[in-house]
Amino acid sequence: MIIVLLGYMGSGKSSVGRILAEKLNYNLIDLDDFIEEKEGISVSEIFKTKGEVYFRKKETEYLKDLLKLEENTILSLGGGTPCYANNMDAILNAENATSIYLKGSLPFLSQKLFKKKAKRPLIAHVESEELMTEFIGKHLFERSQFYSKAEIHIVTDYKEKIEIVEDIILALF
User: Fold this and answer.
1) What is the DSSP string of 86-151?
2) Model pTM?
3) Which residues are annotated binding-site positions for ATP?
4) Which of 45, 67, 97, 102 is surrounded by the fewest CB atoms within 10 Å?
5) Which residues contribute to the annotated binding site?
6) Tens digit of pLDDT for each residue in 137-156?
């Protein structure tokens, strides 16, 4: 089985994915890390030197390859992955994949990401929590139609990572 974790930046896809993979004894693949390994440069460098169109094309190509894996795998996506090139449909149509939306509310994500913005190039420029809420709100509005197609929805607000992992396991098995 491939468990596909999707959701907005800061929802816990990578950190929850690590714990979940350990608990279930599954392989863990972070799609952005996988792309960096295959392309030999960082995602931000790909955006800078080759552009977003190139990145999204490669992202879709690698996603489709990974959805064919036969090993038990946790696949953590980038926040935008489900929203491009019919990627969400590819995930939903993959025979051995289950999609899980790690759903954070706008206030929760804004508060969390504003504190950690220095580590996130996409939001490093945002100067106040109010502007962060506006920025994330716009993204969530655009992306929620894709995220909401996931088979399982797990609310992440103010939960410890292990609680989220337990919620996922209960929903799956």
Assistant:
1) THHHHHHH-TTEEEEEEE--HHHHHHHHHHTGGG-TTTTT--SHHHHHHHHHHHHHHHHHHHTTSS
2) 0.95
3) 10-15, 120
4) 45
5) 10-15, 32, 56, 79, 120, 143
6) 999 999 999 999 999 999 99
